[in-house]
Amino acid sequence: MSFIALRPLVAKRSTTVAFLGARRTFADKQTKEEAGGVLEKVGQAFKSDGAVGKQFQGDGNIGQVGEAVGGPFSSKGAIGKEFTDSGSVGGNVEKAATDVKQTGQETKSS
Fold first, then answer.
1. Which spans does this entry mark as compositional bias, Polar residues (predicted)?
2. Number of folded domains in the chain?
3. Would you tell me which of 29, 44, 58, 102 could form a disulfide with 75, CB atoms 3.0–4.6 Å apart?
């Protein structure tokens, strides 16, 4: 008889677990969308036209210093040209920013 008395209790537990699983799925989806949005914003910020990236342009806060010093530090100099979006440093940052932004978009849609 004790087995029959336990049976409804087990059924109730499995229903509760299934309900919690549905809530967790919704939370996971919401978290993914939020994380994807953050990744998109970070990626865009580091692109050459983003909030951080544009500071390295010749007219940006960091780029102006190189232009003022001139010589190899100007945007056309040996060092400065590496920080443009087609240079080795700037190009790698641009590619990484694009990859992060794309990952954000994929995360939001999955």
1. 100-110
2. 1
3. 58
